[in-house]
Design the sequence.
């Protein structure tokens, strides 16, 4: 589950470092072997040179006679054995040992998750695929770029996971970016392959004319691809039939999203109308800590408390959480279990009062601010989002029950979440805000600040206006911690 937290990606850099070392050793080994082979060929050639000088004299010598026979028997059989051995075999075995000692992403699962993160960013922030591939992320130019191979893999995963929409654009970008690196032949990356996938993707999206046009370009480069010639003819036949029937040729449209989801995405893009906010300061009389409170909404009240937690406290929380992070789940009332899915892509770790001396300090501070007793508080949750990591629209209280009885039990067991305190543990360069679609409020993470709101109305019912979501992180690694009362 490496794509669901940026924190875990540091481990993958270590993995890759070990692999590079391993490949280097393999390369040195190959170089030595090549050197040996060269010497061998030179030795053989020098024998033949002697022979050419005087053919009969050479073979008069019993030593030469014997050596020739030995070379072509015992020694040649050894060369045959050498040639039959896969030189990479030994290294492959060592690679599997490496895989046990280092964190390895799961293939294809982790690649699929990573692609779905990219797709979410693309979708939510309406990113132009070509500019993104060239390192431009929502108006900012960075120096990392996607390669032609990267783009083909993104397109392929999209096709294989049933998300064909826009997969053709990825293949087209892979064609634009193609540079003939001979070493890529080893991994089978050729320009023909990019074109063929683009044709496939167009045809899967019912864009037959698009498919034909790409086939034409490919056939101009390489006319001998019979498969392409055949499928091109097939598309032309289909187009003719559709036209005869009067069916309009139409590319499939993008999947339709529910309106709440569209409102959530609009908030992520900063499209809610600007609101004036009030800045208040109040003193917590219990321990005389001043809180810098900014009210972003009243009824229901949502406030931001600036400088709620210090940098040192943040570092402690991150360091105790890092080794314990696991994939975050969403509680399913019917199944009575947490389910991991695409609606919440982050990792978290939970902390109780006894786990670290900082936890009761934070709990007291939260209690002081919220004026709710933290006696019934759940544990504190520290979370880190991954590539395109988000938390889709949800309520923090248990959802209106389908099964009233089981809901009552749940409330009895866990209590419902009266209030939420969400603490941001870093600034986010792009994306990652917390949005309330019903209230048209978007809060951008600011290191050390906390957002606070009540989830329940005074009569104890869930307040549906508190529907909220965490926007996909576009640039940065989002850390936060959250407490419910
Ligand atoms: O990370 C965020 O911005 C919101 C997180 C959230 O809503 C939750 O964990 O319940
Ligand atoms: Fe939430």
Sequence:
């Amino acid at each position: 589950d490496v794509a669901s937290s940026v924190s875990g990606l540091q481990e993958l850099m270590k993995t890759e470092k070990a692999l590079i070392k391993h490949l280097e050793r393999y390369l040195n080994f190959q170089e030595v072997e090549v050197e040996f082979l060269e010497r061998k060929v030179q030795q053989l050639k020098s024998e033949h040179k002697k022979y050419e000088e005087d053919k009969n004299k050479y073979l008069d010598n019993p030593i030469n006679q014997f050596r020739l026979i030995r070379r072509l028997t015992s020694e040649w059989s050894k060369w045959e054995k050498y040639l039959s051995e896969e030189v990479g075999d030994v290294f492959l075995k060592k690679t599997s040992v490496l895989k046990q000692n280092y964190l390895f992403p799961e293939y294809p699962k982790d690649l699929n998750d990573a692609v779905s993160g990219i797709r979410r960013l693309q979708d939510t922030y309406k990113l132009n695929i070509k500019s993104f591939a060239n390192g431009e992320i929502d108006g900012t130019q960075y120096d990392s770029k996607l390669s032609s191979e990267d783009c083909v893999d993104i397109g392929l995963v999209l096709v294989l996971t049933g998300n064909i929409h826009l997969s053709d654009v990825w293949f087209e970008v892979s064609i634009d970016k193609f540079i003939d690196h001979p070493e890529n032949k080893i991994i089978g990356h050729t320009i023909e392959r990019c074109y063929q996938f683009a044709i496939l993707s167009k045809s899967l999206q019912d864009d037959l004319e698009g498919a034909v046009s790409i086939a034409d370009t490919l056939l101009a480069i390489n006319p001998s691809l019979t498969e392409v010639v055949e499928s091109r003819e097939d598309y032309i036949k289909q187009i003719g039939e559709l036209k005869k029937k009067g069916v309009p040729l139409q590319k499939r449209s993008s999947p339709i999203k529910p309106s709440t989801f569209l409102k959530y995405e609009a908030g992520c893009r900063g499209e809610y109308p600007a609101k004036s906010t009030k800045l208040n300061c109040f003193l917590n009389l219990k321990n005389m800590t001043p809180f810098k409170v900014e009210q972003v909404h009243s009824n229901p009240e949502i406030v931001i408390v600036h400088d709620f937690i210090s940098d040192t406290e943040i570092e402690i929380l991150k360091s105790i959480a890092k080794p314990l992070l696991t994939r975050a789940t969403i509680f399913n009332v019917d199944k009575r279990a947490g389910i991991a899915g695409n609606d919440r892509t982050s990792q978290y770790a939970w902390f109780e009062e006894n786990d670290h001396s900082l936890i009761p300090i934070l709990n007291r501070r939260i209690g002081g601010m919220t004026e709710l007793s933290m006696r019934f508080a759940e544990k504190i949750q520290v979370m880190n989002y991954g590539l395109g990591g988000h938390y889709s629209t949800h309520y923090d209280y248990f959802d209106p029950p389908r099964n009233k009885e089981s809901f009552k039990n749940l409330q009895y067991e866990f209590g419902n979440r009266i209030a939420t305190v969400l603490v941001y543990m870093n600034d986010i360069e792009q994306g990652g805000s917390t949005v309330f679609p019903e209230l048209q409020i978007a809060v951008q993470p600011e290191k050390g600040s906390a957002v606070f709101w009540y989830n329940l109305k005074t009569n104890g019912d869930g307040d549906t206006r508190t529907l909220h979501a965490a926007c996909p992180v576009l640039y940065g690694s989002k850390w936060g911690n959250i407490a419910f009362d």
In short: The radius of gyration is 32 Å. The domain at 260-484 is CATH 2.60.120.620 (Jelly Rolls). The first helix runs from residue 9 to 53. The chain has three domains: 2-101, 109-245, 260-484.
